Amino acid sequence: MKRLIELCVNGEVYELAVEANTTLAEVLRDQIGLTGTKVSCGTGECGTCTVLMDGRPILSCLALAVDCQKQSILTIEGLSVGEKLTPVQKAFHEYGAIQCGFCTPGMVLSTTALLEANSQPSMQEIRKALEGHLCRCTGYNKIIEAVQQAAEQMTPKAK
Amino acid sequence: MHLPKFEHLYPASLKEAARLLKKHGANARLAAGGTDLFARMKYGLAQPEVVISLKGLSVDFPAVIKGGELHLNALMPLADVAHTAEIRERAPLLAEASMSVGSNQIRQMGTLGGNICLENRCSYYNQSHTFQFIEPCFKRKGSLCYLIPKGKKCVAVFQADTVPALICLDAEVEIIAADNSRQLLLEKLYTGDALKPLALSQDEIVGKVIIPQPEPVRGTAFSKFSLRGGVEFAALTVAVRLDVADKGENCYAARITVGAISAKPVRALKAEKTMVGEALSDKLFHEIAGMVASEIHPVMHHGYSIPFLKECLKTQTYRTLVRGAERTGRYGKK
Amino acid sequence: MSANEKDPQRLAYIGKRIPRKDGPEKVTGRAKYTGDIHLPGMLTGRILRSPHPHAWILNVDTSRAERLKGVHAVITARDTAGRKHGFVETPRYPPDQNPLATDRVRYVGEEVAAVAATDHYIAQEALSLIRVDYEPLPAVFDPEEAMQPGASEIHPTHPKVKEPLVNIAGKTESEWGNVEDGFKRSDYVREDRFDSHLRTHGYLEPQITLASFEPAGKLNIWTSSMGPFLKRAKLARTLDLPLSAVRVQKAWVGGAFGGKIDLFSHEFCAALLSMKSGRPVKIEASREEIFAAYRHGQPLIVEVKTGVKKDGTLVAQQFRVINNCGAFRGSGVVVIFLVWGFIMVPYRLPHLKYEGYAVYTNNPVRAPQRGHGAPQLRFAVDSQLDMIAEELGLDPIEIRLKNARKPGDALPNGDNVHNCGLRECIEKTAERTGFQKKYGQNRPAAPLNCSKRRGIGIGVSSFMTGSLIYPSSSSAMVKMNDDGSVTLLTGALDIGQGAETIQSQIVAEELKIPVEEIQVIAADTETTPVDIGSWISGNVYVTGNATRVASTEVRKKLLDMAAEEMGANVMDLALGDKCVYVAGSPERKLSYRQLVAASIRKHRGDSIIGEGHWRAMRDEPYHPSLATTRGRWSENYAFDAQVAEVEVDIDTGQVRLIRAVTAHDCGFPINPLLVEGQVDGQVSMALGHALMEEVLMEEGRTLNPSWLEYRMPTIHEVAASESIEVITEQYKMDAPYRTKEVGEGLVSALLAAIANAIYNAVGVRLFSTPFTPEKILRGLGRIK
Predict the structure, then answer these.
(1) Candidates B3, B53, B104; nearest CB to A57
(2) Residue range B218-328, CATH number
(3) Chain C contact for A43, CB < 8 A?
(4) Is B63-117+157-211 assigned to CATH 3.30.300.30?
(5) What pLDDT digit, counting tens, does each position of A19-60 carry?
(6) How far apart (Å, rounded) are the C-alpha atoms in residues B225 and B148?
(7) DSSP one-letter code for C218
(8) How far is B11 from chain C (nearest CA, A)?
(9) Share of residues in chain C with pLDDT > 90 (%)
């Protein structure tokens, strides 16, 4: 029996009819039509489906849609406004951290959360923040470079 | 992978949750972070008709009680456990262990209670059985073991990282049931029976974790061996706690708990006893590591053989003892 | 050639570090992959798989499934046209696999039936209602066992194989010189055996296909692939549709690495289910299905006997290679040919005798995986070469320089290595890493009572650039639009390697238009011209030259039109800023927009379109014989040397790759940023294969079919990766160029380098991959 819920995604409120067993990933992709969130395993093992929930990176494939009411969800589509990329997105693009792009949305969101909480992360902190994201194309080298470059962009410069 | 259908209930308190568990019996499962249960449901390993969600319940701990006890709400996300100041200060071993669980996302969603109640795991068990290993093994209520073909019992291992740390800290848990509650040494929660790893009845929920006040001169360390630096479950974990006399280097209490290599975490009791009264020294640590490796018998799991695990156990124990000793401030690098 | 374009140094777009065109789309979530496409009325398809490694199918009863509410179509082999397909389809190796099993299943996971239903729950339930009666047959999983007379026969041995061996899918034999003579004249001879294990691609985007059959007879397909034209051809044939009735359209692809080339059952099933139900059908394989039933890389056994002179010069080599093909031929017969090629190219070798066997076993079919045999072969050859060097008192660098091919070397098959930069690659990696100083010095990373030991090792590899596999050629069209902008139509598919960006750079250079302003229409069998595909390392070379030709045709038309309009001499004209101007008097110019209008007006509507075509191996009719290796193979070969610095923990056996330095002769890099990305990615893949990845199988079943248990490197395992370009070719405007591949060869040398580095660090020589902690500890005597 479907339940009526309200989800706040990228600042917009959506009213949706969902079953209890519908995951957040399914609702985002199939009902709302935000296909930027990708699914690579569905069992929480690769980080591809990561979205931010009240600023925390979570696995949308293991979150029930009905459990996500009253929270603010941010997907990759909600990051940039029009053509203007955020510093994290820009850094990923310019430093070659994108190849096939499938891991990119999740990776970018986790990076965004990291840098918002900690604008000068150490290498270990970067690793711990991104350890749950698998990437097969880049070897992570340019991703690390992009994260560090974005951090530099986002750190307020001493006057 | 898709979740099967289920009825979803939102109790307003743990007591209510326990009552619902009692009411629905074996058809019901508790969901906190969902990172273990929902993955298992997608693999077809759990098919509850009713899921009782603890998501709506508030989490406003930790509290530091008189006498310096640390009371932790079992619903605390692991990321919070790792980063909360009081926990880092009073139970750094737990903070360290929590940081090694899964990935950042798992730590943001997964709870301390969930980790404590993690289901046991085995390669042959933790997959769907649509076209492979269809004949059910012991853990799937069948009558065979794939890992040990002539085996007579299930050998699925308990791989939660926080538990060896909590055992070393002599942690207790408060368990809420429909009609009562009880407090129990966490170590006693584990049965060693891979088919029913937790000594909990159907309506019991781990509500609170209580960590006694730490001794004044204490050093702890946690290590997890896996092929990769993150994400995976452990090949083996070792947690160590050393309490040293205030003016000296003699250890008066030691805990060494090994995880992931058997159906429940195991304390190396002989080794612990041997440490009491001894001065901390490199020679001692080597000796103790050897004792632990002969006292504890790993089960092979997830591609790791017994000879490898035994050797790994010796090395990890030694290294963890050294780090724990260094953190007492009475050994090695000051 | 106009005035200021004569200088080849003045390249504006080629050779520049330009971020990908598709970057913004991917980083904002707008890029559509096959799973993101929704069509009205779309059904979910699922596949029923065999639980037996080998069994007769006595009966398949789908009646209960068909009656289930919500099920729109059910198919088995009975519903198909009975056409087989195969990775290789030649007279010697005809297609051998049915998309759905007919009377027999030969591996766990083989496809037996498929359903399309309104949602995945109903589809899954429908599968459980299909009843299949099996009669199990004896199964064999190890190729050496499978070859022996008396083994359970999976398919008859190939008729051209005369030995009394069973389950031989194919054999490759080749020799030159006289090895027996060679061994007699050698100062030192040794024989070794190397075993490579089963590992897999690990693409993040699952295998997925959306098929929509229109009532008028057109089949539309979106599928995660490595090139739409091969898919179209195979789908058309197996479905018994005319080629023109099948349209394979572009969707972005989330990685492939060789695992998405030829026809997959789920693609066929999605199409047939759509044809039967009249609705679009999407089939997505679960991650478990991908690990347990789909195609992985090729486990190889390499037995090699080598004779050398005491100064290290190679004299003779004899090889016996056994490839565990899986239950059908797959690309098994290609690998045993390629392995021969990977032996032939890097080192000079006067005498060779080569035998390769592709052997059937009751395992899922194997597929090309990045390197396609090169990593495994180079592991064997370069490990042994180090052992030989040690025996002779030479160092690994000297022995390789002694034997490395030189520019202009003719190869025994009639090809030429042209501007081979292998020696320079070896020298540069050695220099960059201080190899000779570090080698042989058992260097602990820290004070002596520390358990870490460092080691250094080198490997080399070579890879062909484009060869003749269907469709063997690429065509491109460049058209001007009336506002002076440009559209490139190319059949090339971007699977992550940057195909669209590379092709745009070529157009940009020829027409002096910024890359961002080039519109690309790609990878649609209906609207874009044919393309060689993204698996044969031909994107830059074959497609690139086609694009170049098309662009130069457009440039010529623009220049001629401008000359006509301005009354100038073509030789005095230059391009820039989307204008053609007179060099020296830049105020005399005409914009592209004006030139297009003029062309339409004065040349009977000619809106300025250019077309270009290129074929790998332009003068050869066919690919060389897979069985005899005779025939020309590739017009150009890429070379590389890779040095690995590892750290071994002697108490845990764990190995870390600290640093990888790759020197590659990839011709010239069209986009160095993308090339670096390819290098980094391959270093990561190589270290995964070397140290932690393994598909664990037992009696045909996969024990670790999940991301959690198939241990692909995470961000914790990153090695410092440095890339040195050895540039041996030139990009000349308006002239064909020979650029080389960069997407596969660089995963191939590192495995050997790591093996050699481990030996250098701790004295443990490993003859099988992966180099697990357990193997290291056994080698050190820490475990019995």
Answers:
(1) B104
(2) 3.30.390.50
(3) yes
(4) no
(5) 999 999 999 999 999 999 999 999 999 999 999 999 999 999
(6) 23
(7) P
(8) 28
(9) 85
